[in-house]
Amino acid sequence: LDLSLTLVSKHTSRRRPLLDIRSSGLRCYKCQDYTGRCQDVQECTYEDSCISLSERGGKTIRQCIRYTDCDNSRLSQMFPAISAFTYRCCSSNLCNSGTACTAVTPLVALLGSLLSVWWCWM
Q: Which cellular component, as a GO term, is one annotated location (predicted)?
């Protein structure tokens, strides 16, 4: 998406941008729901990442975001009504379709390690 206004000077034939509004080209899913089935797509304007943020109560928010805002303290300010959440930020087209990362991932890694140690002892 390129929305540009061009100014042509009467003294020169050169063109220069008067107003330049460009899309980052990134597309993210955009929704706020409890189903996890998000089909609306948003073209990001100034944002360079997508986010999938899941509230512990089940609500999921997906949208464009600046990557610099992808940290717990900033997200807590941006979404003050949500007190406990997990999130995942990514930077490729429609990458926020899945569920957000949760605290289960370290637990699975730990269980996998314990299982491999147990397997070696057998």
A: side of membrane
CATH superfamily of 25-121: CD59 (2.10.60.10)
Alpha helices (H) along the chain: 72-78, 104-121
Asked if 43 and 54 count as a contact pair (C-beta separation under 8 A), the reply is no
Give the amino acid at 5.
L
CA distance 41 to 27: 7
Give the separation between CA 37 and CA 60, rounded to whole angstroms.
Answer: 9
In sequence order, the β-bridge partners of residue 32 are 61
Q: What does residue 92 show for φ and ψ, rounded to 5 degrees?
A: -125, 160
- Evaluate if pTM is beyond 0.85: no
| Domain segments of the chain as ranges | 25-121
Q: pLDDT at position 108, please?
A: 45
